Amino acid sequence: MDNLTHSLFGLTLARTPLGRAGRGTTTALFLASNAPDADIVVTIGGAAKYLEFHRGPTHGPLGLVGLAALVAGLVWVGRRQWDRNSTDPPASLLMLWAVSMLGIVGHILMDLPTSYGTRPLSPFSWTWFTLDWMPIVDIYLLAIFGAAFWLARGAGTSAAGLRRRQRCAAAALVLMTLDYTTRGLLHHQVIARAGDAFQGRLPEWCADGVRPAAGLDHWPRTATAAMRDSNAGHCLVELAAMPGFVSPFSWRLIARLSNAYEVRDVNLLSGAGLSPDEPLATRTLPLRVPNQWTPVVMHAAAAPTAQVFLGFSRFPAARSRVGFDGAVVQWSDLRFLQGPLDGERQFRDGLFSATVVLTPTGQVLVDQLGPALDTD
User: Fold this and answer.
1) What is the tens place of the pLDDT at every residue in 99-117?
2) How far is Cα 309 from Cα 343, in angstroms, rounded to an integer?
3) Is 153 exposed, middle or buried (0-12, 13-18, 19+ CB in 10 A)?
4) What average pLDDT is seen over the chain?
5) Which of 82, 121, 144, 231 is 20 to 30 Å apart from 274, CA to CA?
C-alpha cells in the first residue's frame, strides 16, 4: 500500500483504545506503520538494489522486531526530551515496543493482499507472497480513513470527544474489513469465470501447472514452471487476476501459457449482475504476448541485473532479437501494463522491465533495468 494509507491506518489505530496505552503511542503507531518502507534507502545503490531488497528484510521477522525496537526507542527518547511538561501518563518503553510491533504487522498485512506482494519471511526466504485482492493504491480505503477523520474533526479532548473519535475509528476499521472481504470475494469470482472470459481460448493445464487457489500465491516459481523453451507443448502454466485501480469489479486476467501470455480485461458488472449465467464484459480479443525462453534468453537471464529483475517479476514476458551483431533480450512484468491493452507503447513506457544486450560471442554488453533499445 501507499504510505498515505499506511499513515492513516496507524493514526486510526491510535484512536482506538490503543491510544490510551500512554503518551507516545500515537507517534509510535504512526512511525511504525511506515517503518518497513525505510528500505527505500537502498535506492542509493541504484534501481536494481531497490528491486532486490524492497519489501524484503524490513518486512520480515528481523525487521518486525528490530524496527519496532528502533521506533520505540526514538519515541521514548523524544518524549523525554521534548514532552516533559505533559500531565498525561507516559507509555513505558515495553508498551511502545508492543504498539510499534502492531503497527508494523499492520503494514505487512496491508501489503500482502496487493498485486505487488511482499516477502514476509525474508531474509530467511526471499519468496514473494500475495493474495491479489487489492491495487497498490486503494481509493476506497483512502476515502474510508479520510471520512473517519473528517467526521471526528473538532471532537476536542473531552470524554465525549474521545468517544466520538473512537466510534469513527471503529467504523473505519469495520468498513476496511468489508472492503478487503468484498475484493477477496470478487477475486474468487473472476478466477472462477476465467474460462468464460477467454471464451474457450485457453489450452489444457500443463502437468506441472500452478492452478489458482483460494489462499496465498507465491513466486518465483521453479524453473520448469516458469521458464520454458519455444518447443514446449502448448498448455496453461498459471492463471491470475489483477485488481483495477478504480472499480473493484474491473480485473485484468493474466494467463501464462507454455510459450506466451494472454491478457484480458474483464468487468464483473456486465449484464444484470454477478450471476454465473450472465456473460462477462470483455475485450473482443485478448492481448497475446510472446514469452519464448530460447537458449539465448536463458543465457541472458544469468546476467546480474536480469537475475534481480527475474527474482522480483511475477510474470516476466521474454522477447529477443538475434542478428549478426549479437542479441537483445528484454523482459517486461505483465503485472504493470498500464492503460488499455491495445496501447501502442505498452512495452516501451513500462517502468518494470529489464534489458540484456549480448555480443555475437555471448558476452554481456548491457545489463540494466528498463528498455535499453527498441526491440519491437
Assistant:
1) 999 999 999 999 999 999 9
2) 24
3) exposed
4) 86
5) 144
Place of cell 520454458: 228
Alpha-carbon torsion (157, 159, 161, 162), positive or negative: positive
Separation of alpha carbons 138 and 281, rounded Å: 23
Instruction: Tell me phi and psi for residue 10, to 5 degrees.
Output: -60, -40
Closest CA to 110 of 21, 8, 17: 8
Beta bridge partners of 322: 327
Q: What is the pLDDT of residues 120-133, one digit of tens each?
A: 999 999 999 999 99
Q: What cell was used for 184?
A: 477477496
CA pseudo-torsion sign 119, 184, 208, 196: negative
H-state helical runs in the chain: 3-14, 25-32, 47-53, 61-82, 93-111, 139-151, 159-192, 194-197, 223-226, 295-300, 304-312
Q: Are 230 and 171 in contact (CB under 8 A)?
A: no
For 130, phi then psi, to 5°, come to -160, 160
Q: How many CB atoms lie within 10 A of CB 136?
A: 14
Portion of the chain with pLDDT greater than 70, in percent:
85
Q: Return d(Cα 322, Cα 43) in angstroms, integer.
A: 33
> Would you state the pLDDT for residue 60?
97
DSSP string, 277-293: TSPPEE-SS-EEEE---
Cβ atoms within 10 Å of 34's Cβ, excluding its own: 19
User: What cell was used for 15?
Assistant: 484512536
Could you tell me the CA-to-CA distances from 313 to 105, 121, 149, 214, 335 in Å, in that order? 24, 18, 37, 22, 8
Question: Which residue has 480479443 as its cell numbers?
Answer: 285
Residue listed under C-alpha cell 512484468: 333
Q: Which amino acid is at 374?
A: D
Cα separation of the two ends of the chain: 33
- Residue 71 C-alpha cell reads as 521506533
